[in-house]
């Protein structure tokens, strides 16, 4: 068991350096990365899969990916946070699609799944200041852009499913997703 | 499925492509610096959207580390994984999740992490009385501390009076979360490996378990319990290891008036 006092945790730690240590097989650094990002990663996974057990599975798989592919992390092209979150999101979406495939074997897509869900866990902390900036950026999107982003990113739908669900052409769906991201990027540019 | 691959960057960034589209996009990305840059930007944007932090269950860290760093090909070991803290009163509304390969769920609200108390007191500053930072910290320490902190920093967090075995424990309740965090620094260790169990007392006097805890050898404890809703007070008893279905032991303390 590693004592946490050995860990370069906290704001002083430089995540890019941590990743180099993880790539070198440093378990303490891996734990530090976990501790730093697990809460937002779990928050995202829960939002996508809407089930604590599936979210934990996704988190576990994603962190196995992080450990296994840390050497491929390139600090020049990505922040650690973005890299971690992309691996978490991918695993979460895989989970959703697998569950969905199981469900769909007999039944249709469960209506109402994308209604705002109540939280299954209570331990929720909004990162307030950060949340405000993102809120403003999201407010800058059109309602249609927000909807498409919610379905594609948090709902785990493919753009085909998004198009079918919203009854819009596929081309429109993919353009709208891209426009939404582009708009967010412009709004958040100063912060990134 | 044809068209300009550039158009798919957004859908790719949001993991919204079918597997074959994803493969095609990855092939395109390898040769298109423009798309690479666009994708990198979108990924930062999407990561920035994650403003909601949720403390993972204690124990997940060790499970994650074991699964990741263990021998290749070894399937993720489940035993380390903790049942999720009680889903709360809203659980089961509408959705019935199939039972997954989890260990016994009998003690689902048990979040015992005695050593975490050290982390909370030292790092969190929740309790003014800092303990020597040389105390050992269990693997769960940080996640447990995160959970306790989440309750302690909730917008509606309120301190309530607590008495456990005549010592001062501190209890923070968040009604919104339906949780309370109990922190104590000098609790006597219960006899013969027994544990403390907290009971919600409903207005009609019926008691239901809010969780169990065992302080470490130094009497430290930081634990999150299910405050639920509708209980106006809590009592604490000593119970056999793992707790009981209803109070059987001696009453040793109470929380609230």
Q: What is the overall pLDDT average of chain B?
A: 69
Question: How far is the N terminus from the C terminus of chain A?
Answer: 36 Å
- Text of the CATH class of the largest domain in chain A: Mainly Alpha
Integer tally of domains of chain A: 2
The counted number of beta strands of chain B is 11
CATH class of the largest domain in chain B reads Mainly Beta
The chain pair forming the largest interface, with residue counts per chain, is:
A-B, 86 and 73 residues
Q: State the shape of chain A.
A: globular
Main sheet: strand order of chain B: 4-3-11-10-7-8
> Could you tell me how far the N terminus lies from the C terminus of chain B, measured between alpha carbons in angstroms?
66 Å
What is the radius of gyration of chain B computed over CA atoms, rounded to a whole number of angstroms? 23 Å
Total DSSP helices of chain A: 8
Number of helices of chain B: 6
Low-confidence segments of chain B? 73-143
- Largest sheet: number of strands, sense, barrel closure of chain A: none
Total beta strands of chain A: 1
SSE class of chain B:
alpha+beta
CATH superfamily of the largest domain in chain A, by name, is RNA polymerase sigma factor, region 2, helix turn helix motif
- Per DSSP, what share of the residues of chain B sits in E-state strands of 2 or more residues? 15-25%
Secondary structure topology:
The complex is a heterodimer of chains A (192) and B (257).
Chain A: H1 15-23, H2 27-49, H3 52-69, H4 80-104, E1 124-126, H5 128-139, H6 143-154, H7 159-166, H8 170-188
Helix pairs in contact in A: 1-2, 2-3, 2-4, 3-4, 5-8, 6-8, 7-8
Chain B: H1 9-13, H2 19-31, H3 33-49, E1 52-54, H4 60-69, H5 116-124, H6 141-152, E2 158-160, E3 162-164, E4 167-168, E5 170-174, E6 179-184, E7 195-201, E8 207-213, E9 221-226, E10 233-239, E11 251-255
Antiparallel strand pairs in B: 2-5, 3-4, 3-11, 5-6, 6-9, 7-8, 7-10, 10-11
Helix pairs in contact in B: 2-3, 5-6
């Amino acid at each position: 068991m590693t004592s946490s006092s050995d860990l370069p945790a906290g704001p002083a730690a430089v995540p890019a350096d941590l990743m180099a240590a993880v790539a070198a097989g440093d378990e303490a650094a891996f734990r530090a990365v976990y501790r730093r990002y697990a809460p937002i990663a779990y928050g995202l996974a829960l939002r996508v899969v809407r089930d604590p057990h599936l979210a934990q599975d996704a988190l576990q798989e994603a962190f196995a990916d992080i450990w296994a592919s840390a050497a491929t992390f390139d600090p020049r092209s990505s922040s650690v946070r973005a890299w971690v979150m992309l691996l978490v999101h991918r695993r979460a979406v895989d989970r959703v699609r697998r569950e969905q495939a199981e469900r769909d074997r007999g039944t249709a897509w469960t209506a109402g799944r994308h209604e705002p869900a109540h939280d299954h866990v209570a331990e929720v902390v909004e990162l307030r200041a950060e949340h405000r900036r993102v809120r403003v950026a999201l407010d800058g999107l059109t309602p249609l852009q927000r909807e498409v982003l919610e379905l594609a990113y948090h709902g785990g739908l493919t753009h085909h499913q998004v198009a079918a669900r919203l009854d819009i052409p596929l081309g429109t769906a993919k353009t709208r997703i891209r426009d939404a991201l582009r708009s967010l990027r412009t709004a958040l540019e100063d912060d990134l | 499925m044809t068209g300009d691959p550039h158009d798919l960057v957004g859908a790719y960034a949001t993991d919204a492509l079918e597997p074959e589209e994803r493969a095609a996009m990855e092939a395109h990305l390898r040769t298109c610096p423009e798309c690479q840059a666009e994708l990198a930007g979108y990924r930062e944007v999407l990561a920035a959207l994650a403003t909601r932090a949720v403390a993972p269950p204690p124990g997940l860290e060790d499970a994650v580390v074991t699964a990741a760093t263990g021998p290749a090909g070894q399937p993720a070991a489940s035993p380390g994984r903790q049942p999720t803290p009680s889903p709360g009163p809203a659980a089961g509304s509408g959705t019935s999740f199939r039972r997954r390969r989890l260990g016994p769920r009998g003690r689902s609200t048990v979040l015992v992490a005695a050593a975490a108390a050290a982390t909370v007191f030292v790092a969190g500053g929740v309790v003014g009385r800092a303990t020597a930072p040389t105390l050992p910290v269990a693997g769960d320490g940080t996640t447990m501390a995160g959970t306790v902190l989440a309750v302690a920093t909730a917008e509606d967090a309120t301190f309530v009076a607590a008495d456990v075995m005549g010592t001062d424990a501190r209890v923070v309740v968040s009604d919104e979360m339906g949780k309370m965090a109990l922190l104590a620094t000098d609790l006597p260790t219960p006899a013969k490996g027994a544990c403390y169990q907290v009971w919600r007392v409903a207005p009609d006097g019926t008691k239901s378990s809010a969780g169990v805890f065992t302080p470490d050898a130094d009497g430290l404890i930081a634990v999150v319990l299910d405050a639920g809703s509708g209980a106006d007070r809590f009592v604490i008893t000593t119970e056999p290891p793992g707790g009981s279905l209803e109070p059987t032991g001696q009453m040793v303390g109470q929380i609230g008036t």
